[in-house]
Every structure is written in structure tokens, then in C-alpha cells.
Amino acid sequence: MKSYLTVLATPGAWRFLVPALVARLPYAMLQIGILLLVRWSTGSYGAAGAASAAAAIAQALAGPQTGRLADRYGQPRVLLPQVAAHTLAVGALVALAATGAGAPLLVVTAALAGATVPQIGAMVRARWSHLLGGSGRLGAAFAVESITDELTFTLAPVLLVLLSTGFTPAVALLVSLALILAGTVVFAVTRVGAPEPMPVRVRSARGVLRLRGVAVLALGFLAMGSVFGSMQVGVTSFTAQLGAPAVAGPVYAAFSGASVVGGLLYGAIRWRVSAPARLVWGLGLLAVATSALLFAGTVPLLFAAAGLAGLVIAPVIITGYTIVERLTPAEVRTEAFTWLTGAIGLGLATGASLAGQLVDRFGPPVAFVVPPLMVGVVAVLVLLRLPSLRPVPGPATPAATTAADSPRPSGSARG
After folding, report:
1. In 3-state terms, what secondary structure has residue 192?
2. Which residues of 212-229 are buried (b: 16+ CB within 10 A; e: fewer)?
3. What are the start-end ranges of the E strands in 215-275?
4. What's the predicted TM-score (pTM) here?
């Protein structure tokens, strides 16, 4: 644990980590909250699903533009107007739902709520990169962030469901809004570790995706997002088929808990294998691990298979963020982080949609075909593009993207 204690002892780190945690908790509540809210208002699962998907897609597409603005103008000048817009959008959505507005209007407003979500996770990673870039501690810092993500995605749905059942989905979404508003404002005005605004030389909206290796990494993160989405559908439908629907929650918890353990172990190791090679191996192992879900015919086997998949996925995500930090110049790094985060969101929506179609046509177990298939195909593609994930020696430029101005130690924990 020494590597983690050293990272957390970085001067001033807790001043931005605590408000960031408060602000990130609602990030995992928004889509489920919108789903419950629109279902509560309209009585239609179709409308609820459309509104939730609209929020997810809008968030994935708008996030990188938020990151681009943060790189250019600084985090506070982006976050404060953005959280104000998000407050208006979510407030309008709750008001419209409470007054029985039509489904099309709710879907459009949900998309606005998703598009205005503050990208706190990417900005925290940008701060760690600014504070610890070039040191062996950055890998452990990214591991801390991955573990934080897992904890929020474990705790947030529980809190949301408790509030929704104890009160109403409208109250639950308003509590979520209060958390994100308070956390974002405090995070924005806390300047510790915040990178200085820099002129952005990569000007087109797709410019960062054209940089060396970024599109390959985004594809990998899309595949990992499909694991989350298809597992949600697969576990929910399969446990219902087994006559134990209440077990779905604990199975998700086993997946998330194993991911936390995997991230902790991975981030503490001093790796001698390069990060790109670890990414390929990790994706291959994830494809194998998620294949075990296909053979989980009982509840105990489902727990074991979910735990195995969770143990692998966090290290792969950590490695991806590590590689993109090395490949991209500091002037566009926040945007690069948001492309990866958005890719997970798109992958989640894609995986859930594919799995849902398979469940409707062939039954719940077939949903588990999606994770190994998508991850396996992407693992092969990443292997073929492996050279693009290695930094080019020399100064970082938009044309030949290299992460660092000088080589970084390859033997440290860079997960």
C-alpha cells in the first residue's frame, strides 16, 4: 500500500479529491435516475429507455468538447457555466416529468442533461498528470481513479434506488443534482493541480482522435463499455430466469468489488512489461474471463464468473489511461481523457442494446456472448495497431503524438 499512501500524500491532493468524489457520485446515478424518472412519469419503459439512451449518447459526444474547452481555457471557466447549465437541464427534466409532459419532450431534455454533465473524472486525471507526470507515481494515481470510479458505480445505484423507493425518482434525481452542484463548484474553485490554460493547436473537433493511438484506445474502451452494458442486461435477465431476481444486485457488487481488488493489485506492481503489451494481454484475458459467463448455469457460478471478469477489467482501463497520457501533448490531454470516458459510455449503450436484442430473441444466457466477442475482436485490432501505442521519441506534436518530453521509466507501476 506504500505506493497509494505516497500518492494520496501528494501536497494538496485531498483538497480536490474530496469534492471530486462528491461530484462524481451522481455521474453513475444520472442514467438510472432518468430511466426511473421517465418510467414514473409516463408509465412507459420504452420512453424511459429512450430518454436514458439519449442522455448517455449526448454525454459521450459532448464530453470531449468539454475537455477541449478545459484544455484551452482552464477547468474553472468551463466547469462553473457547465454545472449551471446542468442544474437548469435536470431541474427542467424533473419539473416536466412531475407535470406529465410528453415522452418526446422528456427525451430531448434528458439529452440536454446528459450533454451538460461536468467531466470531473477526466479533469481529476488531468490534475494527476499535471502533478505527477514523468514520475513512477502516476500509475498508482490512475489506479486510485479507477478504484474511485468502481466505488461510485457500486454505491450510486444503491443510493438512487433507496431514495426512489423511499420517496420518488424526482427526489432521487434532485439529491443527485445537489451533490454534483456542490462537488463541482468546490472542485472548480480549488486550483491545486489544475493545469494552466494552453493554446490548442489541434483545432478540428475530431483532431484528438486523429492523434497517434487515441482512436485505437477509444475502440478498446468502447469494447470495455460493452462489457458493463451487456452484463447489466444479462445478469438481470438471467437471475430472473433462475427465479432469483434479487441476486442481480449482489452479482453486480461482486463484479465491482473484484474490479477494485484487481485495480489495487495492478497499480501496486512495478511492471517490467510495456504498457501497450499489457493492454493487449489484458484485453485478451478479459475476453477469456467474460467467456466464463457463458458457462455460469447456476447462481454460485455466476458470482464466480462476474468476479473473474471484474478482476481483469480495472487493470485494462488503468493501462489505457496510462497510455493515452503518454501519447498526447499536455495541451489536449483532458480532451483525450474524455474521449476514452465517452467511449465507455457509448460501449455501455451499445452492449446493453445488443444484449437486449439477443435476450428477446434467444433467451437470457445468449446476452453473455456480447462481451467476449466484442472484446476479442478489439484485442486483435489493438494487436495489429500495437506500434501506434508506443510514444515516438522527441517533442510531442499534434502530428506525431508523443506523451512526454523525455522518456519515462518503464519499470514502474504504470497501470
Report:
1. coil
2. bbbbbbbbbbbbbbbbbb
3. none
4. 0.76
